[in-house]
Amino acid sequence: MSAAEQKPYITIERETRPVNVMMNDNIVATTKEALILKEGDYPPVYYIPKDHVAMEFFLPTDKRTTCPHKGEARYWTISGQGRALENAAWAYDDPHAAVSAIAGHVAFYPDKLRIEVG
């Protein structure tokens, strides 16, 4: 099989430790039910169940991206305390079957928010 035909190696596992996502010192998401998605050489991404996210601080944006392995992602700007982090969170509302476990979950950019595990 050629490199073009190979799919990236994607795994999804449950994180057994608590995960908190912080904007400054404010928790915008907290769970003991996070998923860790690992894809090839990319850093792991934590996916938090949407009902464990403070969605009242999330403003939908027009940004959409498409991943050939996961599907179409939508984005949110997180706003609070006079600060806004543009397109800092995303979700795959209808992911491809191979990664269907991430449906109903939100992921965050670790360079925009602090993600604490454990």
TrEMBL record:
InterPro entries: DUF427, DUF427_sf. Residues 19-111 form the DUF427 domain. Pfam families: NTP_transf_9 (PF04248). This is DUF427 domain-containing protein. It comes from Plantimonas leprariae.
